[in-house]
Amino acid sequence: MADECCGPDEAASGDQTAPAELTPVWRIRELQAAALAGLLLLAGLIAPAGSVVETVLFWAAAVVGGATFVPGALRGLMKGRLGVGLLMTIAAVGAVLLGEIAEAAMLAFLFSIAEGLEGYALTRTRNSLRALLDLVPPTATVLRNGTPTTVGLAELRVGDTLLVRPGDKVATDGVVISGRTAIDTSVVTGESVPVEVGPGSEVFAGTVNGTGAVEVQVTATAADNSLARLVNVVQEAQERKGSSQRLAERVAQPLVPGVLILATVVGVVGSLLDDPAVWIPRALVVLVAAAPCAFALSVPIAVVAAVGAASKAGVLIKGGAAVEALGAVRLVALDKTGTLTRNSPSVIEVVPTSGNTPDGVLRVAAALEARSEHPLAAAIVAAAGHLPAVESGEVEAVPGQGLVGVVAGRPSRLGKPGFVAAGGLSADVERLQDAGATVVLIEHDGTVLGAVAVRDEIRPEAAQAVEMLRRQGVSVVMLTGDNARTAAAIAAQAKIGDVRAELSPQDKARLVTDLQARGRVAMVGDGINDAPALATADVGIAMGAMGSDVAIEAADVALMGEDLRRLPDAIAHSRHARTIFTQNLILSGLIIAALLPLAALGILGLTTVVAIHELAEVLVILNGIRAGGRRLLPTRPALRGTRTSRPAAAYSQARQPATGIGTGAISLPLTPAGDSAAGRPAGQLISLTSAPAETATAVKDDCGCEPGSSCCN
Fold first, then answer.
1. Which residues cross the membrane (predicted)?
2. What pLDDT is recorded for position 9?
C-alpha cells in the first residue's frame, strides 16, 4: 500500500462494470499481517530476554510485518521507482545488520498497521461502491410470448419486456410500456420521494417498484445500464488526481532519493568524523524519519472516501481535481431549462393571426420541430399529436434563433421574436413572456401564422437551493438563451437577481470566462446544449445525469437525481473534504520537518521515530476516512408531493373552448396521461410555473387558469 501511494505498480486492469465480491474487513491481508506481527512481537517481549525463543519471535514478527511492504518495494525498485516502502525496507535491513532485531520487528509491525489501515480505508470505499451493483436483483422476469420467464441478468437483451411486480427491484434501464406505479429511487439518486411513472417514463436499474405492476422495455443490458456505468465512472474518477494530490506526490517522489542521499551523507561524514557505530544507526533513523508516506496519503485517502460517499448520495464527483475545484467554488452559473426548471415543457397557448386557426399554426410548427432536438420541440410536437402530419424537408437549425425549412412545399420559419417578426402579435408575445412562457413565432410562405407559447415548470426546490448557496457565500447567476422577460419571470421565482438572457452557447462560454474574474465558477447545465460553458467553467455540473451519457462524460460533477438542493450539499461536502486533506498535508509536513533534525542529531532513536511517524500516518488515514461521512449529504424531503418521471412518449390532451385575445386563441392544457391517478383529472389545466408556496405565482381572480393564459383576460 505504501508504495501505491508514492508511485507503485500499476493497478491491474479489468472489467470494472462486472460485479465484484465485497471484501470483509477481517479478510484484508495487511490487517491480518499487522495483527499476527503484533502478536509475535508481544510474545517476543514476554519471552526470556536473550533467549532463542525471543530471537525467533522477533524475526517472525519482522518477516510477517515486512511482507506487507517489502515485496512491493523491491518490485518498484526493479522498475526504477523509489517508494516509501524502500526506505522502510532499508531501515529494517539496517537494523538487522546492526543486531537490533527487536527494532526491526517494531518497525515492520508499526508500518504494517499503517498499511492495514490504508487497506481498510480503500476497501471500505470500494465495497460501498461495489455494493451499488447489488441493488439489482440476480434474476429478472421477462415476458416471452406473453409468458413470464425468469432469466439471469446476463441473458437480458435490449428490446426485452420486463415484468416488474410490486416490491420488485428494476433489473436494468428501460421505458415503461404498460402500467402505472411509483418508483423509489432513493437507493440510486438519494431522493426520498417516489417518482410516479407510466407509459413512456424512464426507469433505472436498482430502483424499487411500488404498489403497481408495470411492463418495461429494456433499453440497456445489465453490463451497460446506468448503475454499471456509474460504478465504472466513479472507479475511473478515483484515479484522477487533484492539484493538492499532485502536490503531495511531487513532494514525495523527489523526497525519497533526497532522503537516501541525506542518510548517506549523515552516515559517511559522521563515520569519518566520529564513531561509525553511532552515525550509521543515525543514518538509518533519518531514513525512517523522512518517510513521506503520510504526506502522500494525505489527499488520496480523503478523496477516495469523499467520492465514494458522494456517489452513494446521488452525486458523482470525478476524482480529486473535481473535489478540490468544487470545494473552492465562489460563483454558480445556472442554466434555466433542465436546471432551474424540470425540462418538461408543454404548450400553454396558441395565438393565431387573423384568418388562421390554432390547428394550422400547430401543424406547421410541429412539421418543423419534428426534426429538432430542442427541449421545446417535444412539447410542440405533442400538442399537435392529434392533427394530421404535414410533409416537411430541408429543416435546418439556426443556432440561438430557430428553424428554417420547407413545409408543404413552401418556405417556413419558426423561432424567437426578432428572428420572425411578431407584427400584430407583439402585445400577445409580451403578455405571454411576462407570464414566464417562451414564445415562438411561425412563418409560412412569408406570412406569420401565429405564436405558440411553451412554458417549463420551475423546480419547487429552486428558491431554497439558491438560498442555501447564498448562505454558503456562493453567488448565483442565471444564464439562458431564452428572452429577457421569460428569464426574469423564472429568476424572480427562484430569487435570483443576476440574470443573463438571450445567450447563444458561445455567449454562455464567454460569460463564464468573464465571471471567473470573481472567483472559481461552477456551471450547471444539461451537459449537451451547455457543453461549451461546462468545459469552460472551473467545474462543470450536469443535472439529472442518470439517463444522460453525454452529461456524465461532459461534466466534472453529475447530480444523478432531480433535486437541485443536492448542488449546495455537494459543495459543502467537497469543502469538508478539502479541509480534511489540507489538515493532513500540514500535519504530515510538520512532522517530517521536526523529525529530520532530531533524528540526525541522535535525539530520537529508531523506535521512537518509527512510532511517531507511523502514528502520524495512522492519524492521517483516520482523518481522511472522515471525508466519507454523509452528514453534509442528507436525504431531503420534497417540498411538494410525489413527482412525475420524465415522459418519453406523447401526452394526453384536452381542448378548452377558444376565448380571449386573438382570433381563435386557444389554451392547450397538456398534462401527462394518467395524472388523474394523483387526484387530478386528465386534461385539467394546471399551474405550469410551480414554486415554493411563498413564491408561487398567484391565480388571477380565482378563474382557475394559469396567469397569462387567455381565459384570465
1. 31-50, 56-74, 255-273, 279-308, 585-612
2. 39
Q: What is the CATH number of the domain that holds 402?
A: 3.40.1110.10
The helix (run of H) or strand (run of E) holding residue 151 is strand 147-152
3-state helix, strand, coil in the chain (%, to 5): 50, 20, 35
Residue 698 pLDDT? 31
For residues 98 and 207, state if they share a domain. Answer: no
pLDDT score for 288? 76
Same domain, 355 and 452: yes
Distance of CA 593 to the CA centre of its chain: 38
pLDDT at 196: 79
Q: Where does 98-139 have alpha helices with state H?
A: 101-130
Grid cell of 646 as nine digits = 420524465
| Domain around 180 | 137-221
| pLDDT for the residue 699 | 31
The answer to whether the beta carbons of residues 557 and 315 sit under 8 Å apart is yes
Q: Nearest 5°: CA angle at 65, between 59 and 66?
A: 85
Domain final residue, candidates 203, 221, 239: 221
Q: Cα torsion for 481, 486, 492, 496, to the nearest 10°?
A: 10
Whole-prediction pTM value?
0.64
Instruction: Please tell me whether residues 390 and 423 are part of one structural domain.
Output: yes
In angstroms, the CA 142 to CA 164 distance is 9
Helix (H) or strand (E) holding 523: strand 520-525
pLDDT at 685: 26
d(CA 522, CA 514): 13
Bridge-based pairing state of the strands 410-415 and 402-407: antiparallel
Instruction: Give the chain's residues under pLDDT 70.
Output: 1-25, 83-84, 114, 117-134, 186-193, 230-253, 292-293, 296, 343, 373-375, 400, 527-529, 531, 545-554, 638-713
Between CA 66 and CA 77, with CA 71 as vertex, the angle to 5 degrees is 120
In a domain, 151, yes or no: yes
Domain co-membership, 365 together with 451? yes
Residue 290: CA count within 13 A, CB half-sphere: 27
**pLDDT at 247 (0 to 100):** 63
Q: Is 703 left (phi over 0), alpha (psi -120 to 50) or beta?
A: alpha
* Domains held by the chain: number: 3
Q: Which three cell numbers stand for residue 63?
A: 518477516
Residues 187 and 87 in one domain: no
CATH of the domain at 167: 2.70.150.10
Considering the domain boundaries, does residue 76 fall inside one?
A: yes
- Asked whether residue 282 is assigned to any structural domain, the reply reads no
In the listed set 221, 242, 273, which residue is the last one of a domain according to the structure?
221
Question: CA angle at residue 322 from 21 to 579, to 5 degrees?
Answer: 95
